[in-house]
Amino acid sequence: MDSFFGIGFPELVLILIVAGIVMGPERIGQTARWLGRTTAQLQKISRGFVRQLNQELDSSGDGKALKETMQELQQLRKELTDLRGEVTQTTKGATSAGRKAIEDIQNSIKPPNLKPPVLPEPPKSEDTIEAKADNAGEKNGAAEATAVPKLPTPLDVPDDPE
After folding, report:
1. How far is CA 115 from the centre of its chain?
2. In Å, how far from its chain's centre is CA 136?
3. In Å, what is the CA distance from 67 to each residue of 57, 70, 74, 158?
4. Domain count, the chain
5. CA of 93: how far to CAs of 31, 103, 147, in Å?
6. Which pLDDT value is given to residue 51?
7. Taking 50 as the threshold, does the pLDDT of residue 145 lie above it?
8. From the CB of residue 28, how many other CB atoms can be counted at a distance below 10 Å?
């Protein structure tokens, strides 16, 4: 037991020291005896109460009713667990169907996949800087032309006179 009413061992020692200073040695002994007797009486009363309660529960027919109620509670708990499992399975099925529907909708909205452009291999015999720069420009131009289709230009429509 780490604490008694939120009071740990160091706090208890401090309280006893302060009590010894305030009450003096004669009254501390009397107070300790009184606390001991009171604690013993309270323990005796609580033991008698628990003993009497157990006897009443065992001797009366309510003990049987209590046992039956406990069995019913256990059966209801089992049924509740089964029902929870069924609900979980149902919601998992509905959730997966909803996710599949969302994926289908998203896939129907996406444009068709464009194939990545095939770049010709650069000739290995050219070692000049100008030839490399020209090849790089051609590669970028070819990649841009094949990867992104051109968008149509907007039409100018005159305003309606009415």
Report:
1. 43
2. 53
3. 11, 5, 11, 89
4. 2
5. 71, 15, 40
6. 92
7. no
8. 15
Regarding whether 17 and 45 lie in a shared domain, the answer is yes
Q: Residue 151: inside a domain, yes or no?
A: no
- What are the structure tokens assigned to 86, written together? 């069924």
Whether residue 55 is found in the same domain as residue 71:
no
In-domain check, residue 101: no
The model's pLDDT over 68-124, given as tens digits with 9 standing for 90+, comes to: 888 999 999 999 999 988 888 888 888 888 888 888 887 777 666 666 666 666 656
| 151 has pLDDT over 80 | no
In a domain, 146, yes or no: no
Higher per-residue pLDDT: 34 or 63: 34
User: What are the angstrom distances between the C-alpha of 99 and each of 37, 86, 87, 112?
Assistant: 72, 20, 18, 21
Cα 153 from chain centroid? 52
pTM over 0.70: no
- Running DSSP on this structure, what letter comes out for residue 127? -
Q: What is the Cα–Cα distance from 133 to 150, expressed in whole angstroms?
A: 26
Q: Put residue 25 in one of left, alpha, beta given phi > 0 → left and psi -120 to 50 → alpha.
A: alpha
- Structural domain including 72 reads 66-94
Shared domain check, 26 and 54: yes
Confidence bin at 37 (pLDDT 50/70/90): very high
Residue 133 covered by a domain: no
